[in-house]
UniProtKB/TrEMBL annotation:
Keyword annotations: Cytoplasm, Cytoskeleton, mRNA processing, mRNA splicing, Nucleus
Transmembrane annotation, as ranges: none
Name this polypeptide is given: Methylosome subunit pICln
Protein family per UniProt: Belongs to the pICln (TC 1.A.47) family.
A Pfam family that the UniProt record links to this protein: Voldacs
Disordered: region residues: 1-21, 135-163, 197-219
InterPro entries in the record: ICln (IPR003521), ICln/Lot5/Saf5 (IPR039924), PH-like_dom_sf (IPR011993)
Location(s) in or outside the cell: Cytoplasm, Cytoskeleton; Cytoplasm, Cytosol; Nucleus
Species: Equus caballus
Gene Ontology BP term (one): spliceosomal snRNP assembly
Organism phylogeny: Eukaryota, Metazoa, Chordata, Craniata, Vertebrata
Known partners and oligomeric status: Component of the methylosome, a 20S complex containing at least PRMT5/SKB1, WDR77/MEP50 and CLNS1A/pICln. May mediate SNRPD1 and SNRPD3 methylation. Forms a 6S pICln-Sm complex composed of CLNS1A/pICln, SNRPD1, SNRPD2, SNRPE, SNRPF and SNRPG; ring-like structure where CLNS1A/pICln mimics additional Sm proteins and which is unable to assemble into the core snRNP. Interacts with LSM10 and LSM11.
Function in brief: Involved in both the assembly of spliceosomal snRNPs and the methylation of Sm proteins. Chaperone that regulates the assembly of spliceosomal U1, U2, U4 and U5 small nuclear ribonucleoproteins (snRNPs), the building blocks of the spliceosome, and thereby plays an important role in the splicing of cellular pre-mRNAs. Most spliceosomal snRNPs contain a common set of Sm proteins SNRPB, SNRPD1, SNRPD2, SNRPD3, SNRPE, SNRPF and SNRPG that assemble in a heptameric protein ring on the Sm site of the small nuclear RNA to form the core snRNP (Sm core).
Domain of life: Eukaryota
Amino acid sequence: MSFLKSFPPPGSADGLRQQQSDTEAVLNGKGLGTGTLYIAESRLSWLDGSGLGFSLEYPTISLHAVSRDLNAYPREHLYVMVNAQFEEESKESVADEEEDDSDDDVEPIAEFRFVPNDKSALEAMFTAMCECQALHPDPEDEDSDDYDGEEYDVEAHEQGQGDIPTFYTYEEGLSHLTAEGQATLERLEGMLSQSVSSQYNMAGVRTEDSIRDYEGQLP
């Protein structure tokens, strides 16, 4: 396939975590051959015996997992889903893409399966993938944690710059209430006073007022 390139294998300078030989690479159900899988901190790479292969950048990898379901695939493997297209483009595929350009919400997805000859290495491969991908967090997730609200710049206000927040005392606050707001406040205060008075009659609770009322009722 045209996307296979020749490049030197990742080494210690790339933060190589796992090197798995005799690993078959399968792209969207099509076998690419048997070669060596390199799980490095910088990228995920696979090279066949002739030195041709491909690399996957971690930000493009949306999912990776160990698949042991023999109904989905006849051999246990490391499954990797990538938000990119790697198929060899033909004239027909190019024409199809031009027709689909109007649908911008559909992202290309490629499914890789890395099938090691030694299936006992799958756990180590998966662990190395997790550790390396954790070094490349999704920037969109980081941006979502940013605070978008307006901050109060103390230094700017001390220098007489910017708008000074307005604070009111209780009496000043009442004067700014509308007639409807004042009526609502009075109703809430009435409900609060009733709640306070009723607490003295709570079963099992003895207060000074309840004791005095009880003593007043004695003969």
